[in-house]
Amino acid sequence: METSTEGATRPDSRPVAAAGPPATAGPAAVADTVVTTGAPAVPPASLSPSRASDFMQCPLLYRFRVIDRLPEKPSEAATRGTLVHSVLERLFDAPAAERTAPRAKALVPGQWERLRESRPEVAELFADDPEGERLARWLAEAERLVERWFTLEDPSRLEPAERELFVEAELDSGLRLRGIIDRVDVAPTGEVRIVDYKTGKAPRPEYAEGALFQMKFYALVVWRLKKVVPRRLQLVYLGSGDVLTYDPVPADLERVERKLLALWDAIRTATGTGDWRPRPSKLCGWCDHQAHCPEFGGTPPPYPLPVRAAESGGGQQGRMGPD
Questions:
Q1: Pairing mode of beta strands 176-186, 192-198
Q2: Given a cut of 90, is residue 51 above it in pLDDT?
Q3: What is the dihedral angle through the alpha carbons of 185, 188, 189, 195, rounded to the nearest 10 degrees?
Q4: How many helices (H) and strands (E) does the chain have?
Q5: What value does the mean pLDDT of the chain take?
Q6: Where along the chain do its domains lie?
Q7: Cα–Cα distance between 71 and 177 in angstroms, integer?
Q8: Is 24 helix (H, G, I), strand (E, B) or coil?
Q9: What is the pLDDT of residue 209?
């Protein structure tokens, strides 16, 4: 879900092309990627942390991304997040003694080239930078974020059980939850730690609960899959050099499950009725879809799915917080 915007912290949004505030975006992955290929619209069938956050932030944004699949431009912040994530993942390919800050920084140029090859659209970010000065500054900032990680964790003492782990679980209700976990550590005694890297700054304490929503989502999926409650959830904020930890208990995850079920009911109602309401906030300034948003004088594209009469209670869209 990134840099916190006061009062409106969002979980990490993974697509390189995701709209939103300066972001902590990880590698684009199937769990959260917004498809914009013009494929026929289909009703949503699963929920990821990013898409859950979209709906809570603004139901109309969820519609634009999931139902309409409107294209979104890449951003420097989100793309840098993707680059940093890929460097930290690749560093663990090296033997423990060779996981040093200089080696990690040396990975940045090559991972940037790989990213450009796999996602050519990111080259648009620096199309107006013929001398490469802005690109050089951008890469240098990525190197600083990578270097800061070594002040927060010692990779020579870590042997992750999983990196960039795709997880998916179906709840008893039939709701499918899915996502990508940056890193999973398993202690010799079996305790599980879920770790997520953020290239933004840590939120203020009063907004920490919102930042933990993504992690509790992952913990719920792991619990349902493995029958084990993760011992610790850990957010590593490279932008500010902070580490936020939380030790969940089953009651926490049960509350998250109830919240997600209520959220999914609201999404299904909106899908069936076509009633996707905008929810204006300070995050609107980062949205790519103002031209289609009624709050900015725009008109949404024709709704591509069948609709039925609105159900009572549909006006509750978007009022639910993260936990």
A1: antiparallel
A2: yes
A3: -10
A4: 7, 6
A5: 87
A6: 1-323
A7: 24
A8: coil
A9: 87
DSSP annotation string for 179-235: EEEEEEEE-TT--EEEEEEESSPPPPGGGHHHHHHHHHHHHHHHHHHHS---SEEEE
Angle between helices 101-118 and 76-91 (to 10 degrees): 120
The dihedrals phi and psi of 198, each to the nearest 5 degrees, come to: -125, 130
Joined together, the tokens standing for residue 174 give 């039939």
Residue with tokens 């290929």: 37
What would the mean pLDDT of 81-109 be, rounded to a whole number? 98
Lowest mean pLDDT, pick from 41-45, 58-62, 286-290, 307-311: 307-311
Other beta carbons within 10 angstroms of residue 48's beta carbon come to: 27
pTM equals: 0.84
Q: What pLDDT was estimated at residue 317?
A: 55
Rounded Cα distance between 235 and 242, Å, is 8
CB 256 within 8 A of CB 323: yes
